[in-house]
Amino acid sequence: MATRKIKKVVLAYSGGLDTSVILKWLQENYGCEVITFTADIGQGEELEPARAKARKFGVKKIYIDDLKEEFVRDFVFPMFRANAIYEGEYLLGTSIARPLIAKRLIEIASETGADAIAHGATGKGNDQVRFELGAYALKPGIKVIAPWREWDLTSREKLLAYAEKHGIPVEMKRGKKSPYSMDANLLHISYEGGPLEDPWQEAEESMWRWTVAPEQAPDKPTYIELGFEQGDATTLNGRKLSPANLLAQLNKLGGANGIGRLDLVENRYVGMKSRGCYETPGGTILLKAHRAVESLTLDREVAHLKDEIMPRYAALIYNGYWFSPERRMLQQMIDHSQRHVNGVVRLKLYKGAVTVAGRKSPDSLFDATIATFEDDAGAYNQKDAEGFIKLNALRMRIAAKRRK
Question: Structural domains in the chain?
Answer without folding.
Answer: 8-74+93-179 (3.40.50.620), 189-298+340-360 (3.90.1260.10), 377-403 (no CATH)
